[in-house]
Amino acid sequence: MTQALSLTCSARAKGQAFTPHWNVCVGAGRANEALRASWMEQMRFVCEECGFRYVRFHGLFHDDMFVYRENDDGSITYNFQYIDDIFDRLLDMGVKPFVELGFCPRDMARETDIVFWWKGHAAPPKDVKRWGQLVQRFTQHVVNRYGIDEVLTWYFEVWNEPNLWPFFHGSKSEYFEMYRKSAEVIKAIDPRLKVGGPSTSNFVPDARFDGEKEDTSQHKTVTTAEDLDTLDWKPVWLEDFFNFCSENKLPVDFITTHPYPTDWAFDEHGTGMKLTRGVDATPKDLALLRKLVNASPFPDAEIHLTEWSSSSSPRDFAHDYLQAATYVAKANIDSIGSVDSLSYWVFTDIFEESGAGDTAFHGGFGLVNFQSIPKPTFHTYRLLNTLGDELLARTESGAITRYSKSGKLSAIAYHYPPEVTQTIPGAYETRDVAEATLDTGNPTELTFELTDLPASSSFVLEVIDTEHGDALSAWKKIGCPDPLSRAQTQHLKTAARSTRLSHHQADKTGKLSLSLFVNPWSLVSLRQL
């Protein structure tokens, strides 16, 4: 047995108000994928269940959206019909675009066919003025179509990960000039419109390493992933970005970066190493971001982490497993109060950066797979969405919250085994690492004790574990068939929604005591009815 876990508080305890950051935004692959019926159906499903209010994707200006064409006579044709179709449908379901401005259309790009299966033109424009004209025409178009009051609630983020060579075949100074031009034309339309960046990749250590992972600046040998968290980690380009914008009197309404806890960029040119940081890497990184923004020339800038997951690989089998769901829950709860949004990358396995996934469970990022089967991480966001807006108690095993309007309580708990001191390791070639991680740890007792409740108040307890609500476990039980038949797909959808539910009641004195044994990686929700 592992040491018991407990969550205890009084319903009358003074709460700390907070804004949930986990359901502000969610990611998607590229804009053109949103033209598919199944993509939109899945978008509606996850937003209704998980409460996401914005969605962000790449490729808004890619050729398959037909937004920009330079004609033989020197004229330019702008066409926003495909964008309109996507934005209209999103807004109709109550979801707003978190606009990523990129990549360049072919006719504008200095280099073409650079990144992803769909050959994004991830290079600066041949003429930054043409880029500015496109951004201006697009922004004015959406203002005209949707009204300024609506578009004032949107975010305009310039590019994606310009510090990494695959995603930007240009220099830091070229990106800064693109940001300058974008900010100028957007603010000229209405200075209240929100623009931000630099949308850089995951954090890097201050130290530099050679091939043997030796820190040559501090003469410290780094041999394990745990050693990495003894170093000072920092976001890429952020301080230079602040300085550039301050010196040039440019606005920064929000900052963005992508704090993946694995697969970190080795340097600002995208050379990298596959390493896994400590389990507390994300809350540490987000707390540092808050500190840096507060001390910057833009202390009022919002902080939006527009990509984040347990790893940055769309072929990491761990994404399909229960341990990924538990890690996501823990990292989000541990980060309360640090950021304005932490956007999970991505909501669906309809995702084609590396082409289509070959199997139903191929380690894609999605909260749901290609066949719309919910994965365990879907349940994480669904349960997070049940939490209130006042934090009453928080421990290593979860949190208890209260709804300020109704006074009702809602809690989430998880068994993240203490034997696992890191973020869950990636499983990139086979499922072996993911299976070994799933088998780590021991069962333990989880206790809830709530006092000062209304007498006889009712609660529902929900458990997600390998026997309840885990689509991958259900798939393994039927022999891992691939491809799935229609009947098998329906069976797995049903299994994925078949969580363990039980109802409980406080006693006449207003006390609720619950105790249950949970296996490693279990997720538990307790909600007052």
What topology does this entry show?
Blueprint: E1 5-10, E2 16-17, E3 25-30, H1 37-50, E4 54-58, E5 68-70, E6 76-78, H2 81-92, E7 96-101, H3 128-146, H4 148-151, E8 155-158, H5 172-189, E9 194-200, E10 204-205, E11 214-215, E12 220-221, H6 225-228, E13 233-234, H7 238-247, E14 254-257, H8 281-294, E15 302-308, H9 322-334, E16 341-344, H10 376-384, E17 390-395, E18 398-402, E19 409-414, H11 432-438, E20 444-451, E21 458-464, H12 471-477, H13 486-497, E22 500-505, E23 512-518, E24 523-528
Parallel strand pairs: 1-20, 3-4, 4-7, 7-8, 8-9, 9-14, 14-15, 15-16
Antiparallel strand pairs: 2-17, 5-6, 10-13, 11-12, 17-18, 18-19, 19-24, 20-23, 21-22, 21-24
Helix pairs in contact: 3-5, 9-10, 12-13
